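Box 3.1 A note on notation
Throughout this textbook, protein chains are presented in two layers. The first layer is the amino acid sequence; the second is a token string describing backbone geometry. Keep the layers aligned when reading.
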Amino acid sequence: MRIPIERQKTKITPDLKRVVARFFFNGDARAKGIILRVTEMSDTDVEKAIIPLLRDFSRRHRNITRIFERHAEKVKPLVQALGLDYDQIDMKKKLLIGSYFTNEFSIESAAFFNPSIVEDPDQSNLEEGENASSSASGR
């Protein structure tokens, strides 16, 4: 089934200030690997990695260091499971660990690309006045 597409003149431009930094976790094994790699890094390498991240993220987030700290804190049990003392880890390493567990999310992007706002091209088998998006959501 071909769907006709009509291009509009409206342009949607991104606003980099409208993103949310949220916690991202992809399983214990990967998390432990990241934690070990960061804790084994030299102070120089950590500094080279964290400074550009802080500079870049601080343009979009009010207090990115607090966000990174909070995300590092969330994986503290894994740090301890690796036999490391979380309180003895350098702050820059904690920030770098936290950055690895941070995902930027654009709420506007999610709204624009939400499939529920697009009408299903197959409208067969629907009751009068009903459309596929309302029947799928149970309304």
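The longest strand covers residues 20-23. The two ends are 27 Å apart (CA to CA).
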